[in-house]
């Protein structure tokens, strides 16, 4: 492992960017957590990013709001598919790192702001909104509130949808179900894409025009580890929301 950069952050531990010499991957660490990991072309090596991308690809959005950037791999992939992406993050260092080490295109519009405040201030409309804004392994509660999802609903065009990446510890963890319950206050259709049995995993909770969305497949293959990512996507499935 070769360190490429280190940056102090007001929002948690220092950010480290590392080159995995054996695989060629570039990794963005903050503390003990991966925030991004991509091949040399900026295509993600994280299965949940490919799950989000595979879901979004079915919607073919022309405009996407991403709350949370880190290495910006999802923004890079969406831009290459023709979407206009606005990335919002409280940490300006994320944008600099994403452009310098993760190939994030100049076409991605970067806004330094709190996600909830941005939704309240902007008048722009989007086809899709993605929430993937972790600090220290968790998302701030304000970004998972009923108010956040109500504001998100107002910023969606007709036929739009919201997608949230949720960290799940184990099958009994109600985190995804709690997020789904809050989303249900603003949206009629709410679905959970999850992967049973596996500990320390990511589930995708989505709402809006998502009724016909199918389980995602690998749409944009990275240079390495594509078979492993495809296996994880194949193991994911939609499940009912549980009471919590």
Structure report:
- This protein is of the alpha/beta class and 244 residues long.
- It has a single domain, classed as Rossmann fold, CATH 3.40.50.
- The protein has seven helices and 14 strands.
- An eight-stranded mixed sheet has the order 7-6-5-8-11-13-12-14, with helices on both faces. It has a four-stranded antiparallel sheet with strand order 1-2-3-4, covered by helices on one side. Strands 9-10 form a two-stranded antiparallel ribbon.
- Helix 1 (47-59) packs parallel to helix 2 (73-80) and helix 1 (47-59) crosses helix 7.
- The longest helix has 13 residues, at 47-59.
- The model has no long low-confidence stretch (mean pLDDT 94).
- Structural category is alpha/beta
Instruction: Tell me roughly what share of residues is in helical segments.
Output: 25-40%
Number of strands: 14
Number of domains: 1
CATH topology: Rossmann fold
């Amino acid at each position: 492992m070769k360190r490429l950069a280190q940056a102090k952050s007001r929002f948690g531990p220092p950010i480290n960017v590392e080159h995995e010499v054996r695989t060629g991957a570039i990794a963005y660490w903050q503390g003990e957590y991966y925030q991004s990991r991509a091949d040399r072309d900026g295509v993600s090596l994280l299965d949940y990013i490919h799950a989000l991308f595979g879901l979004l690809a079915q919607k073919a959005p022309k405009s996407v709001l991403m709350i949370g950037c880190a290495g910006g791999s999802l923004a890079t992939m969406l831009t290459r598919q023709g979407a206009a992406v606005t990335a919002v993050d409280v940490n300006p260092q994320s944008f600099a790192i994403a452009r310098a080490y993760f190939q994030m295109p100049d076409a991605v519009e970067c806004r330094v702001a709190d996600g909830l405040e941005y939704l309240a201030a902007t008048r722009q409309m989007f086809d899709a909104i993605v929430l993937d804004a972790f600090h220290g392994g968790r998302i701030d509660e304000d970004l998972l509130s009923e108010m956040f999802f109500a504001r998100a609903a107002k910023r969606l065009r007709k036929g739009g949808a919201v997608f949230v990446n949720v960290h799940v510890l184990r099958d009994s963890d109600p985190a995804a179900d709690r997020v789904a319950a809050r989303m249900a206050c603003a949206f009629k259709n709410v679905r959970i894409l999850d992967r049973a049995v596996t500990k320390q995993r990511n589930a995708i909770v989505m709402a809006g025009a998502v009724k016909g969305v199918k389980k995602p497949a690998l749409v944009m293959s990275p240079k390495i580890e594509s078979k492993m990512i495809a296996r994880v996507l194949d193991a994911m499935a939609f499940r009912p929301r549980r009471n919590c």
